[in-house]
Structure formats: structure tokens, C-alpha cells
Design brief:
Blueprint lengths: L2 H6 L27 H9 L13 H14 L3 E5 L2 H10 L7 E5 L4 H10 L6 E5 L4 H7 L4 E7 L11 H11 L2 E5 L4 H4 L9 E5 L13 E5 L1 H15 L5 H12 L1 H20 L4 E5 L9 H7 L6 E6 L4 H10 L4 E2 L9 E4 L18 E5 L5 H12 L3
Parallel strand pairs: 2-3, 2-4, 4-5, 5-6, 10-11
Antiparallel strand pairs: 1-7, 6-7, 8-9, 9-12, 11-12
The structure holds pyridoxal-5'-phosphate.
């Protein structure tokens, strides 16, 4: 299906709402029933009719159709955060005594769930370097139920060969889940590579304006129905109609935003790589990226998020550089219109900062919708303080 059709037309029926171009925010908690029979059917399957907006809602329904189609998946669920999409996908598929294999350094709240919450229910997790398929083979136990992936990983962008991991998991009857926030379905298609469940923080590129927190999960209908009934309805973790509408609005411009950011990123990386104060740039499409071959095979693009290693000898120098930037905001998250910087040093106490540890000199950068030259000039002046 063409992306233009998905983003501009799919799931929308203007004759239902006064021929309005923009779909309405159906800001209603509950829906009226004309017969006992209809009501009984809705009780039996809450995803079959509009009953109550914790489950199904017309505005959210439009978004579900578009997100499922973007991923080439049978169905999509939309959550009130990426974290709740992660939580629901995992919790629906493990029971007491089960085991999970996860890539190293998954998104921080996935990590906390694996380390702090699931052990209380006797669910254990083994972390592996996901860049090698042998590591998955070695870590799988008879009670492994889930392989949890994040591709590319946060900060240093390690990748997994999704097709190979999916094949291995299928042989062993294990469910695969991947966090695809970095790439979006425009640049990586996990479902077509055989992954069972693909999730994203819709807060990032899908929303695109830094004004909404949301998450999406796609996959086969039967798997998602189980998650809808056991997790989304029970936890009340579905998105609200207004936030669903904001994501719908963000989706309209997703391809042009990514195209623009791709060009900006190329230009800014070109500048950074030639700057004497930058030791190296970590980015999946950089020629020095260790998995460049896999990146070229599996991703149709990468943009916006990259990591720089600064040549800096003190915590103070990194802080001074960071706050000399006029157009990069110091904030978490990414995927919006505004460029951001998040140095590792910000999370390290000055007395424990050690410049011989490369990680301490790393800074994650996100390039937003500003012009490349505007950002380069800013970086140029700020780097002079290092
Ligand atoms: C932000 C993020 C999440 C969590 O999403 P929220 O919408 O903030 O809950 C998960 N994975 C990755 C890679 C992220 O960047």
C-alpha cells in the first residue's frame, strides 16, 4: 500500500463527520446501544464495537488502521506511552518461571521492568550483545519465551539481524519483540522480516512536535487481541482520543520531516567529522560504523539521532560547550522539531568524570527541523570553547 494513501486517506470516512477534512476528536467516554443484542456482542468482544473509550474509540481507530498499514501488520494498538507498549507486549507473553533474552542496554524503562519488576514474579532476563546471532543461540534456555530487541539500540546504535533472529526464534517457539522507535516503519520493517511484535515510542518521530507522549505496537491480529484484552483494557494504558488526534496530525508530515532531517544529518555529520574537537561520530550510515553492511541491508534510511565523542578533558568543559549552544536544547527525548543535545556527562557527578573513559565524553545529538547551516554555525561557535 502506498504511504501517501495510508497517511492521507486510509481509515478516514469524511461522510461520517460533516465532510470535515480533519477527523474529529471523539471526546466521549461511552457510546449508546440501541438493542440488548448489540450491547451483549460488545461485552463479548470490546474490540468489535464502540462501547467505552478505554478500549475502542473512533479517533483512535483511524490511527490504528494507519499504523498497522505503515508496518505491514495485521493490526495495531496505540498506548498512552511507548513504555506502556513495551510493558504490555512483554507482560502478555510471560508467566512465572519464564525467561527473557534481551539485547544489552535496552531502553531504560524496559531495563527497569526486566530488572526490578519481573524478578518479583520469577521472570528472569539474560542480556546479550545482539550484534552476533551466536549470542542469542547461547542464551536461549528451555523456558525462554521472549527475545527482546532494540534495533538500532539507543546511544551507540548496535543493530541485530532481525531476519536471522526471527528465524531462530521461530524454530524454538519464542516470541520476538523489537523496539523500532529509531527507524520508524519508513526506514525499517520488522514485521516483514518475521518479527512478531514491533513497537515504537510515537512520542518521537510519529508525533514529531514534542507535544504528545504515546506508543504503538503492531503484529498479528490474534497476538494483539490478547494484548488488547489482557493488558490494554485491564491496565487502562490506551491512548486518549485527543492524543491520538495529535499523532494523526503528526503522521501527515512524517515522510517530509524525515526527508528533511536526513539531508540535515548528512550535512551536519560532514561538518562534525572534520572538526578537530570531535574524536568520532557514531551513526548507523557512517562508513566507520561497525555494522554498516547490516545497516545498508536492513535500513532504508537513518536520520536525526547520532552520538559524538568530544575531545574534552573535563566535565566543566563539556558543560560549557553544551550551554554555549544556542539552538540545541538540553533535554531528553527526540523526534520533534527542535534540535537537542544530551551529553553523558550530564548524568555523571563531576568528581567521577574520567576523560579516559570514552563514554564519559559522548553526547547524543538530535537534529530537528532547523536548517543545516543554522545548526552548523551554532556547533562551530560552541566548539571553540572546548
Ligand atoms: C522514548 C523511547 C521509548 C519510550 O517511549 P515513551 O513514549 O517515552 O514512553 C522507548 N524506546 C525508545 C528507543 C525511546 O527512545
Amino acid at each position: 500500500m502506498e504511504i501517501s494513501h495510508i497517511l492521507n486517506e486510509l481509515g478516514e470516512d469524511r461522510s461520517l463527520y460533516f465532510n470535515a477534512v480533519s477527523p474529529p476528536i471523539v471526546q466521549s467516554s461511552n457510546f449508546v446501544f440501541d438493542t440488548f443484542e448489540d450491547l451483549r456482542k460488545a461485552f463479548e468482544d470490546e474490540d468489535s464495537a464502540y462501547l467505552y473509550s478505554r478500549g475502542k474509540n473512533p479517533t483512535i481507530e483511524i490511527l490504528r488502521k494507519k499504523l498497522a498499514a505503515l508496518d505491514g501488520a495485521e493490526d495495531a494498538l496505540v498506548f498512552n506511552s511507548g513504555a506502556s507498549a513495551i510493558f504490555a507486549s512483554v507482560l502478555a507473553n510471560v508467566g512465572a518461571g519464564d525467561h527473557i533474552v534481551s539485547v544489552d542496554k535496552p531502553y531504560s524503562w524496559a531495563w527497569r521492568m526486566f530488572d526490578n519488576m519481573l524478578p518479583r514474579f520469577n521472570v528472569t532476563t539474560t542480556y546479550i550483545d545482539g550484534t552476533r546471532i551466536e549470542n542469542f543461540e547461547k542464551a536461549i534456555l528451555p523456558n525462554t519465551r521472549i527475545i527482546y530487541l532494540e534495533c538500532p539500540n539507543s546511544n551507540t546504535f548496535e543493530m541485530q539481524d532481525l531476519e536471522a533472529v526471527a528465524r531462530l526464534a521461530k524454530e524454538r517457539g519464542i516470541i520476538t519483540i523489537v523496539d523500532n522507535s529509531y527507524s520508524t516503519p519508513l526506514h525499517q520493517k520488522p514485521i516483514s522480516l518475521g518479527i512478531d511484535l514491533s513497537l515504537q515510542s510515537a512520542t518521537k518521530y510519529l508525533g514529531g512536535h514534542s507535544d504528545t507522549v504515546a506508543g504503538v505496537l503492531t503484529g498479528k491480529k490474534d497476538m494483539l487481541q490478547k494484548i488488547f484484552n489482557e493488558q490494554l483494557l485491564n491496565n487502562g494504558s490506551g491512548i486518549s482520543p485527543f492524543n491520538a488526534w495529535l499523532i494523526l496530525r503528526g503522521l501527515r508530515t512524517l515522510p517530509v520531516r524525515l526527508q528533511h532531517i536526513t539531508k540535515t544529518t548528512e550535512k551536519v555529520i560532514g561538518f562534525l567529522k572534520n572538526h578537530p574537537k570531535i574524536e568520532r561520530v557514531i551513526f548507523p550510515f557512517d562508513e566507520n560504523f561497525p555494522q554498516i553492511e547490516l545497516a545498508r541491508k536492513q535500513l532504508s534510511g537513518a536520520c536525526g539521532l547520532l552520538t559524538i565523542v568530544l575531545k574534552a578533558d573535563s566535565h566543566e568543559a563539556i558543560e560549557r560547550f553544551t550551554y554555549s549552544l544556542k539552538h540545541f536544547l538540553v533535554a531528553v527525548s527526540w523526534g520533534g522539531h527542535e534540535s537537542l543535545i544530551l551529553p553523558q556527562a550530564a548524568g555523571i557527578a563531576p568528581e567521577t568524570f574520567d576523560p579516559t573513559i570514552e563514554k564519559h565524553r559522548m553526547a547524543r545529538m538530535y537534529l530537528g527541523l532547523e536548517d543545516a547551516d543554522y545548526l552548523i554555525q551554532d556547533l562551530e561557535q560552541a566548539l571553540t570553547v572546548l
